[in-house]
Amino acid sequence: MSDRIxxxxxxxxxxxxxxxxxxxxxxxxxxxxxxxGEECIENLxxxxxxxxxxxxxxxxxxxxxxxxxxxxxxxxxxxxxxxVMLTSEDDTTLVEEFKKYGAYKYIAKDAYFIDTLIETxxxxxxx
Length: 127
Fold this sequence. Notes:
By secondary structure, this protein is of the alpha/beta class. The chain contains 5 helices and 5 strands. It is about 40% helix and about 20% strand.
């Protein structure tokens, strides 16, 4: 088990499963998955090197924080953690909003997002 940790935060089990399948086999870091922003915040003590964070949590009724609220809280607690925002929303104003609150990058959930995500994770972690 690596001491390098990457958080994946998304309320869509299919997306979480895809990310786990894609990234768990990598020996360079350990993957932790969460379904809400609250779970992510509660586990920041694990000191992740990177957080991949969904923008909208529609499927988890217990989610009180949006992805943007979660980003803000993460940055309040530890501004050094890179956060990559994921969203299926087609709204270019979100990019500026994400940058304003310290997101490293924004990735749209399109047909090729997993390829972009792999490249981004490798870029950030220099794997």
